[in-house]
């Protein structure tokens, strides 16, 4: 059925978002210890930056009172977690529908 095809696509999207969320966390930790020109860090930054940059523009508008902490990876991580939960609800709904058809 078409429901199962959509379910498998949604599972793939959830896997991708899960890997992306881990890369955001890894990039945040690597920013404390590893130079930005390191090959591994530069690769992770190239993957993560398109997701984090819109949140960075939003956090630039916030007054963080001079804190040297970038909250944009945290906001990107939370947005990905919310998106994963929404996809999981849709996936479970489609599983329920597929069981009856």
From TrEMBL:
This protein's UniProt keywords: Membrane, Transmembrane, Transmembrane helix
Pfam families reported in the protein's UniProt record: CCB3_YggT
InterPro entries: CCB3/YggT
UniProt keyword Transmembrane helix, yes or no: yes
Keyword Membrane: yes
Transmembrane segments: 12-34, 74-94
CC annotations in GO: membrane
Protein's recorded name: YggT family protein
Annotated organism of origin: Caldicoprobacter faecalis
Lineage, highest ranks first: Bacteria, Bacillati, Bacillota, Clostridia, Caldicoprobacterales
């Amino acid at each position: 059925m078409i429901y199962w095809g959509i379910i498998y696509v949604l599972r793939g999207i959830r896997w991708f978002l899960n890997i992306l969320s881990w890369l955001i966390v890894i990039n945040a930790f690597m920013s404390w210890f590893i130079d930005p020109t390191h090959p591994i860090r530069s690769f992770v930054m190239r993957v993560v930056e398109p997701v984090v940059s819109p949140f960075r523009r939003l956090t630039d508008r916030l007054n963080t009172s001079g804190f040297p902490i970038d909250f944009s990876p945290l906001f990107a991580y939370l947005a990905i977690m919310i998106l994963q939960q929404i996809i999981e609800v849709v996936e479970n709904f489609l599983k329920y529908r597929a069981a009856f058809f």
